[in-house]
Each structure stands twice: as C-alpha cells, then as structure tokens.
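Our consortium's second objective concerns turning raw sequence data into structural hypotheses that experimental partners can test. To show how far this objective has progressed, the report includes one record in full. It was chosen at random from the queue rather than selected for favorable results. The single chain below, 202 residues long, was entered without modification.
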Amino acid sequence: MARRFDGGRLVIASHNAGKVREIGELLAPCGAQVVSAGTLGLPEPEETGATFIENAVIKAEAAARAARLPALADDSGLAVHALGGRPGIHSARWAGPERDFKAAMTRLEEALSGQPDRTAHFACALALAWPDGHVETVEGTVNGRLVWPPRGNNGFGYDPMFMADGRDQTFGEMEPAAKHAISHRADAFRKLVAVCFDIKTT
C-alpha cells in the first residue's frame, strides 16, 4: 500500500518558478505547505536518469535528504513522434542554460522541417520522497500535435507550440484552470493525489 503524505511542509524539488507555481495550484486542495527547493537554497542534483521517472526520483530523494522533509519532484518533457521521442528527457536542455524556450521551439520546428507527422505527447513523472528513503512514483501523459508559429503567452516551456487532441487552443493560449483539467502534469497529479494525499474539505 502506498505511503500517504500526512500534512505539513512539502518541498517542491524545482528551481523553475513556473513549474513550482503550477504544482502549488494543483496541490492547493490537499493542504500541503509548499516550499520550493530554490527558496530553501537546495542544490540541483545532476539528472543522470534515462527516463522521466528516474530523473524525478533523483531530484526528490536529493531534496528530501537535504531538507529533511518530504519532497516532490517532477520530471517532464515533450516527446515528438517524428523525432523518435526527442527532445524527451532533454527537453529543458534544448532551451540551453538561459532556459530560452523561444529558441528551443525554433530548434524543434527546424528539426521537423518537411515532416508531415506533427504528433507529440507531453509526459510528466512525479516522485514523492521522504527523508527515510521511501519513494512513491506515478506518470501522466497528454497527446496532441505541434503548431507553428507558437501561440499564447500562458504556461511555460513548449506550451505555446502544443495543442492537445480535441482542443483548438495551445497550452499557451489556455487559462490555467483549463490546462490543469487536461495536462500531463494534472494527469500525474490526479494519480498521485489518489494514492498519497487527502483532499481537505474545510
């Protein structure tokens, strides 16, 4: 049986402000007191995993050990089917050290030049780690296709280029609540909350 989070402070093992904000919104009904790894000054571990799950576990375990608190890490990315799943676990690296996702989206479009298949999916792995070494993991996905030029200024990363199946707006055009209802991160969070969190009704 999965271990449940029993309340109190929860470290979000990320230095990405957009990601921390989105995770905080998704966890709001659970009563967790969210604090980011960046706020605590925790170092970022080297992501040496070969999968999203492996990298999420590396980050969650490192933050839980350093902060001596439960820690939640997300590793997510965009897998483009015509590119054999790239950029995948290297999605953030395509943006370079400056996290320039406009440049990353241009690079992606250039890589797709002449490709009729523009299908892709976002994947999100979540790892919830405790200081004693226990870890719970889940993974969520959302399927869609890539559009060009990018549309919208909401979200972050590759959101302005990704349109989920059955939608006519990119993630960059959607309001946060609409995106949270269908995103890969929301899918993963629904799974994690079901096994590890209690929804607060007061």
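The partners drew two points from this record. The chain is about 30% helix and 20% strand. Strands lie at 9-12, 33-36, 71-80, 119-129, 135-146, 162-164. Both points have been shared with the crystallography group to help prioritize constructs.
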